[in-house]
Every structure is written in C-alpha cells, then in structure tokens.
Design brief:
The chain is an alpha+beta fold. The chain is built from eight helices and 19 strands. The strands form six sheets. The chain has a five-stranded antiparallel beta sheet with strand order 6-7-13-11-12. The chain has a four-stranded mixed beta sheet with strand order 1-2-5-3, with helices on one face. Strands 15-18-17-16 form a four-stranded antiparallel beta sheet, with helices on one face. The longest helix has 19 residues, at 274-292. It is globular and about 50 Å long.
Length: 312
C-alpha cells in the first residue's frame, strides 16, 4: 500500500494540528537526488521551528519521525517511509551573523547559503560547506566534511528538538562526533547550528569556493541522478580506489550503475528502482571484500521499507 492507504488512515486522527503543510502519501522520489523510492506516509513541511517542536510534542510516541533535507545522501526504499517525514525548507533556513566570525544557521539552510554568508561576512574556514550537497540539519547530524575539513571543526553548538518535542541546545562536545557519524538521538531534528570561523578576505574566500566547485565538477558526476559518496573511506584507504581495483567501474544492475567518472558514486541511469541501487551497492561491497578483504561501510543512508514489507 502507499502512504495514503490504511497505514496513513490509522494515524491520521492522532496527528496534531500544524501551521505548516501536512501531506498524506507524499511522493519522495522528486525530493531526493536519486529520483527513486516510494512515498512518505505523511510529509510535514513546518512553518518554523516552533511548529516542529509543537508537532513532535503532541505526536503519539509510537509514530516514527525522520528528517529530510535536500535528499542528496539518501536512498528511499521503494515501499516508502512509514510515519512522518519532516522536511525543513526555506522557512527554517535563515542564516545570520550573531557575533564576530560566528553565524547561526537554520536547519533548512544549504551548504551553499552558509558558505556564501560566511564569505560576505569575511569569515573563512567554512568554504568546504560549498561542496556538501545538503542542509545544515543533515551535515550536522552526519558530521559532513570534504577537502580536509569537517563540521566538528566549525560547530559551536546546535539547537535540536528531540522526538519528545523538548528543545535543547547541545555543544559540539555532546554530539560524540566521529567520521561521518554523530550520537544525535533517533527522531531528533536539528533546528539550527552555530558555526565559527576565522578572519578572511571575501575575495580570497570566493576564490577558494570557486576552486572547490571546479574540482567537484571535474571529478564527480554532479549532473547525474546520484547520491554523493556511497561508501565511507576505510582507515588508510580511499573507497573509490578499492571499488576500482575490484573491477566495478561502470558495473550495472538493472537501471543502476557505478559511475565511470568516480567509482564511489552510484547512478540512476533513468529507470532504476531504489532496490536496484541498493543491490548494486551490496554487490560492490561483496566484490571489494572478495578482492581486498576490506568491508566497505555505507555512507549513504538507506531508509524506509520494501514493497513486500508494506504488503506484509
């Protein structure tokens, strides 16, 4: 069944009122980079941070909640996502300077918006965010990073709403950051983050952002339906090199393909299902394990259910 079916009906009477937009059975494929996958049982696009907190406070505790940003590092399985998907948009994307070298950024703000605001304020050290195709909420949760920098290097604190609806401010030390991982509680949503950089000249900051953009364009299949880096880099290794050495460059399964341009990217060639993409990733992991003995870990999040699960 899809998100507008019986499962959605079962919780509809228990959903709290909202000031934003609440949609049953909302297709998620248009909202994610792979352009595949099923529907959200409910999609909530809040009016502001207070709308999020009030909704989670009054939402029955057994209803699962998942945050969605730009959907760049995500596979939505073909059976869709049960419960409520919360998508912070422009209403929750304000970026403002609150102190010298310090920005407060809404959870819905993009990496490009944050790095551009930092440039305008003469704050360097945030240029790498230009290369992270996501929103503040996502890269704070995943300790997003690139070009030798990570979110933990610039984060001061973040404002979070817990699944209970309680709003808390967490310093960077409380997030338990490691490589592409944090210990943010399940079902919590990052409402905003405070970043601090160093003094810099806007022209030099822009030059660095331009360099990063050109390097990404040259090395990554940015104009394809992809999901960003598929696997984490194992200690002492590059994931793309291990995939290449295992003979997976250009490997196809259904409508999914390992990128010829960058082998740590999977591509939807046009008609791939999420099952195709995930199965191709698992085949790549198997071949790398057989070739090198190294177990690649997924960096892309895989969420939701298969169609068979939804019918069970």
């Amino acid at each position: 069944m899809d998100g507008a079916g019986a499962g959605a009906t079962n919780i509809s009477s228990d959903l709290p009122p909202v000031r934003g937009r609440l949609t049953a059975g909302a297709p998620l494929a248009p909202l994610v980079w792979f352009k595949s996958g099923g529907a959200a049982q409910w999609l909530f696009e809040p009016a502001d941070a207070d709308d999020v907190a009030a909704f989670l406070r009054d939402l029955p505790a057994d209803v699962p909640v998942m945050a969605l940003g730009l959907g760049s590092n995500l596979i939505i399985r073909d059976g869709g996502v049960p419960g409520v998907v919360v998508r912070l948009g422009k209403a929750c994307g304000k970026v403002e300077q609150i102190a010298p070298l310090t920005l407060r950024c809404g959870g819905g703000a993009s990496g490009i918006a944050v790095s551009s605001a930092a440039r305008d304020a003469g704050i360097k050290g945030l240029e790498f965010l230009r290369s992270i195709p996501g929103t503040v909420g996502g890269f704070v949760r995943m300790n997003g990073g690139a070009y030798g920098r990570e979110v933990k290097d610039i984060l001061v604190e973040c404002d979070v709403v817990l699944r209970s609806g309680e709003r808390v401010t967490l310093p960077v030390e409380a997030l338990g950051y490691s490589y592409r991982h944090s210990e943010l509680p399940e079902g919590s949503i990052v409402l905003s983050a405070t970043f601090r950089g160093e003094p810099g000249e806007p022209a030099a900051i822009q030059a660095e952002m331009d360099r990063i953009a050109a390097e990404r364009e040259a090395a990554q299949p940015l104009r394809s339906r992809t999901g960003g880096s598929t696997f984490k880099n194992p200690p002492g290794h590059k994931a793309w090199a291990l995939v290449d050495e295992a003979g997976c460059r250009g490997l196809m399964l259904g409508g999914a393909q390992v990128s010829e341009k960058h082998t740590n990217f999977l591509i939807n060639t046009g008609e791939a299902t999420s099952a195709d993409i995930e199965a191709l990733g698992e085949e790549v992991r198997r071949r790398v394990r057989d070739k090198s003995g190294i177990e690649l870990e997924w960096e892309i999040r895989r969420v939701g259910t298969s169609p068979q699960d939804r019918q069970a």
